[in-house]
Amino acid sequence: MEAPDISLRDKVVIVTGGGAGIGRAIALACASVGARIVIAEKIPERCAAVAGEIEAMERKALSVPCDVTDTAQVRTMVELAKSHFGRIDILVNNVGGVARKPFKDQSENAWRRIIDLNLISMLATTSAVIPHLIDGRRGGAIINVSSIEGSRAAPNYAVYGACKAGMLNFTRSLALELADHGIRVNAIAPDYTVTPGLRGNVKGPVDPSTWLQPSAEHEALTARRIPLGRTGVDTECGNVAVFLASSMSEYVTGTVIPVDGGSWASGGWLRNSAGEWSLTGEL
Ligand SMILES: NC(=O)c1ccc[n+]([C@@H]2O[C@H](COP(=O)([O-])OP(=O)(O)OC[C@H]3O[C@@H](n4cnc5c(N)ncnc54)[C@H](O)[C@@H]3O)[C@@H](O)[C@H]2O)c1
Fold it and tell me: Which site in 32, 91, 207, 225 is 20 to 30 Å from 132, CA atoms measured?
């Protein structure tokens, strides 16, 4: 029997928001199995830093500072990627995020920005990349970074949740539209994963010394809520993205893989203070 092949040798992978957090982890994980990486990231120093990390692994990287909510910048980024590496094989739509606020208190500008960041960015990059995947005639993979909030109610994150749910159904629909071209479309859905964005480091270089630290009580409650008993690590999303990008998953399309320590499966069940599962979190 042939061993499963996780290699992405010669593949060209575009990662949006690849300069930090989950995007950076996916970029490094793909590079570690041979891929060449295009980092499409709005903060130039983050772009350069991750490109440097990839080159230090003796892999190739192209850093393209850009705002992926802007369709013109996206088209330019994709053309640069194609002319630099000569091909595009995999697209990771990772850019997204939100700040907590009730919908009734949000201005139209505010909720439009959330939609631009979480949904329009995915549509813009996907639309620009598909012709290159089809022309390449080698198939390909699109991986959308959704969220557990795309599958459950998300009070104070309602527009974000709507976008993340939209990403999931776009994933399913596009998987069918592109199946004849051998292009697979899948999503991952993280829960609480420690990243610069989660810790409030949303500007300038990634600098853990500036990160807001949760209280010990908050961390303990999180550990009780998540079945595997801890917060997520960005490399865990990287690992699943490599699986979805590689031929290991060649018969997997139109689906979502939660990378959430079992949160989605728990469906509201909580550990009580004695560590037993209950629906109230109490004995
Ligand atoms: N961290 C979590 O707990 C968590 C949970 C569920 C889902 N997610 C999703 O994972 C994805 C990544 O989240 P993260 O926590 O790693 O975020 P992060 O803020 O740590 O990193 C995101 C990166 O994207 C870049 N970026 C932001 N807007 C951009 C734009 N318009 N154009 C180009 N680059 C841009 C940022 O500069 C940053 O470097 C998001 O889609 C988020 O919704 C995260």
Answer: 32
Which 3 state secondary structure label does DSSP give 259? strand
Ranges of each domain in the chain: 12-208+231-265
Residues acting as catalytic residues: 160
CATH no. of 12-208+231-265: 3.40.50.720
Q: Which two tokens stand for residue 100?
A: 């907590």
- What is residue 59's predicted lDDT score, i.e. its pLDDT? 98
Give the strand pairing for 36-41 and 12-16: parallel
Q: Is 120 in the pocket of ligand 1 (CB under 6 A)?
A: no
Burial of 280 (0-12, 13-18, 19+ CB in 10 A): exposed
- Amino acid letter, residue 71: T
Residue 110 makes CB contacts below 8 A (sequence gap 6+) with 101
Q: Radius of gyration (Cα) for the chain, nearest Å?
A: 19
Q: What are 234's two structure tokens? A: 């960005």
Average pLDDT of the residues in 61-70: 98
Is pTM beyond 0.85 here? yes
